């Protein structure tokens, strides 16, 4: 099935319905040759958006992706690359957990060096910063975009009120407004994308580049019998995931979802990715992989999309539960 391309909210730029991200894997599990091979498979399947962040593997993820892009030699206009800033790479008082102007303007230059690019297409404020005025952050992002070092800016895991405040400030001063949000979205994490942001899609044309469609691997079904040694849940520094991945209630729901996937003749992972892409307010679903064959398998989620009928979606809601309406 051919890749579908969707506008990023109201922006003119289009992103592939499925995209490819480097979180966890690049440098930690995957080096340059494997990264290039996975990106090639994704690109040949129609993926045009590759997601990254300054903090991933302490900057090494950007270096791996940059080296892979150099090796692949694609035409720059044919793909989109992102990065994100907030946590920083050093412990200085102006370098950690901040969106101050000094940090953001230094950060974009560092990311471009590591990626080996003249510009990134999308740049995100990776988390909200309670200690920096939104005007300062918005002005810095305006200057980054105006300078040509990024094409569009957005945010990740901000509340609807925080996004609206940033948008209003930019609208007031005629600055580039935040185009997109990067929220977690999967069968177990629906509230923010489906309820909290609902007005923003209509009012400001917010685009979304959603992450964790497989709920950190829970929706692959591989955690039904504990945590495999080669899985994300076993990685050093990811112990915080264990409770979620071994929760009996979640695992029981996964078992029921797996039956639906089997009836649709697809894997549970393909089903979970397709379910995310079914939402018309999702611009792109960021997929990840640690092996080339996983990329090929994930791309087959496109074939599942037409099978997600109203009846199937209703069955899913019955299993996982819909987000509550206001007042419920």
| Structural Rg | 19 Å
Oligomer: single chain
CATH class (first level) name: Alpha Beta
| Total of domains | 1
Largest sheet: 8 strands, parallel, barrel
- Percent helix, as a range, is 40-55%
CATH architectural category: Alpha-Beta Barrel
Using DSSP, what is the number of strands? Answer: 10
Number of helices: 13
Task: Report the uncertain regions.
Answer: none
The amount of beta strand, in percent, is: 5-15%
Identify the CATH homologous superfamily. Answer: NADP-dependent oxidoreductase domain
CATH topology: TIM Barrel
Task: Output the structural class.
Answer: alpha/beta
Q: Output the strand order for the largest sheet.
A: 3-4-5-6-7-8-9-10
- Summarize the helix and strand pattern as letters: EEEHEHEHEHEHEHHEHHHEHHH
Mean pLDDT: 94
End-to-end Cα distance? 40 Å
Structure write-up:
This protein is an alpha/beta fold and 328 residues long. The protein has one domain (5-220, 275-307): TIM Barrel (Alpha-Beta Barrel), CATH 3.20.20. The protein is 41% helix and 12% strand. The strands form two sheets. An eight-stranded parallel β-barrel has the order 3-4-5-6-7-8-9-10, surrounded by four helices. It has a two-stranded antiparallel ribbon with strand order 1-2. α1 packs across α2 (60-72), α3 (101-115) packs parallel to α4 (134-146) and α4 (134-146) packs across α5 (160-173). The longest helix has 16 residues, at 248-263. The protein is globular, with a radius of gyration of 19 Å. 44% of the residues are buried.
């Amino acid at each position: 099935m051919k890749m579908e391309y969707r506008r990023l909210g109201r922006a003119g730029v289009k992103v592939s319905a499925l995209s490819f991200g480097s979180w966890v894997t690049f440098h930690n599990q995957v080096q340059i040759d494997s990264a290039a091979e996975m990106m090639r498979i994704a690109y040949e399947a129609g993926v045009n958006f590759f997601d990254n962040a300054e903090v991933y593997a302490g900057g090494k993820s950007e270096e791996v992706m940059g080296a892979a892009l150099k090796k692949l030699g694609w035409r720059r206009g044919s793909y989109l690359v992102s990065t994100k800033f907030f946590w920083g790479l050093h412990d200085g008082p102006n370098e950690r957990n901040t969106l101050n102007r000094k940090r953001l303007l230094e950060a974009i230059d560092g990311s471009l060096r590591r990626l080996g690019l003249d510009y990134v297409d999308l740049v995100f404020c990776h988390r909200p910063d309670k200690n920096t005025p939104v005007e300062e952050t918005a002005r810095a992002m305006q200057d980054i975009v105006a300078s040509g070092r990024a094409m569009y800016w957005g945010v990740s895991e901000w509340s609807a009120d925080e996004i609206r405040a940033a948008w209003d400030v930019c609208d007031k001063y005629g600055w580039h407004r935040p185009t997109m949000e990067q929220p977690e979205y999967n069968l177990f994490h629906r509230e923010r994308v489906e309820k909290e942001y609902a007005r923003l899609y209509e009012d400001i044309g917010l685009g979304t580049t959603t992450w964790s469609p497989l709920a950190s691997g829970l929706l692959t079904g591989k955690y039904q019998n504990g945590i495999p040694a080669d899985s994300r849940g076993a990685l050093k520094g990811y112990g915080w995931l264990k409770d979620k991945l071994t929760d009996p209630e979640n695992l029981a729901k996964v078992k029921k979802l797996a039956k639906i996937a089997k009836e649709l003749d697809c894997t549970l992972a393909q089903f979970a990715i397709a379910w995310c892409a079914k939402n018309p307010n999702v611009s792109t679903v960021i997929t990840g992989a640690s092996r080339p064959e996983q990329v090929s398998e994930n791309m087959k989620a496109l074939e599942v999309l037409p099978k997600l009928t109203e009846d199937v979606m209703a069955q899913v809601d019955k299993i996982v539960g819909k987000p509550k309406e206001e007042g419920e």
